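subagent[fold] <- orchestrator: predict structure for attached chain, return tokens only, no commentary.
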Amino acid sequence: MDVQNLSAFLQVAETGSFSRAAQRLHLTQPAVSKRIAQLEDELAAPLFDRIGRNITLTEAGLALMPHARAIQLELQAAEQSVRDLAGEVGGQLRLATSHHIGLHRLRPVLALFSERYRNVHIDIDFMDSEQAYDLTLRGEIELAVVTLAPSPVTHIVAQEIWPDPLAFMAQADHALAQSGALTLAQLSEVPAILPGMNTYTGQIVKALFDKHELPLQISIATNYLETIRMMASVGLGWTVLPHSMLDESLALLEVGGTDIGRSLGVIHHEGRRLSRAANAFIETLQSSRT
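subagent[fold] -> orchestrator:
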């Protein structure tokens, strides 16, 4: 089974598009189609259903998918083993991180790492933590420094680097900020500006209210914490943000019976042999704990 054909299969399956797969592989679309056709001929089974512009995996394609990913990870491990024979920490490190961590946590880590390991080229992709988990599972990213999922994720090795306490906040002139001690029940009656429920941070907040069987009135939801802070600072609603984001534009809300937080850390696929550069980056992260 040709490795290049398997690579084309994975890219089409993950992008849902022959043209996007071609862009990723730096090939023409006909070349990708030819590779898929060769693989289908070899397996004597169609791998994709093509209905209009929609491309979905057939039963045979679904069966092939986990094996193709496993082969991809094994090949990456083989390549890394050969590179490691040189002994020097170098090469390329593909890293994913969130905008918040990039802005508030990674600067000193990257500065120290770049000073120590000048022969490593870091390719940083900024994305939501949830997307980083997905790409790590696919084997497309070696490391990700993200908000850790509230519950363990199968095949993902996660290590906390920074605990990140969360706090209830509102504009200083907001009625809630003038009320002294508050309850979750009181907050549930007032519109909130929160991270989207598709984010780990949003899920942590929702779980707290669900635990007390209280509804959430979400007037605005966005994945960008800096945007949430701005909207809360002009009085559009209360919010929950990392305590480290509290500034003069916001006031802490005293909410009884709450102690919530999240963990920021590094993840990688359990089946992936990490490069020397990746291990060196993890060591640098560990040394940065404050």
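orchestrator: received. Logging for downstream: The mean pLDDT is 90. The chain has two domains: 3-83, 91-290.
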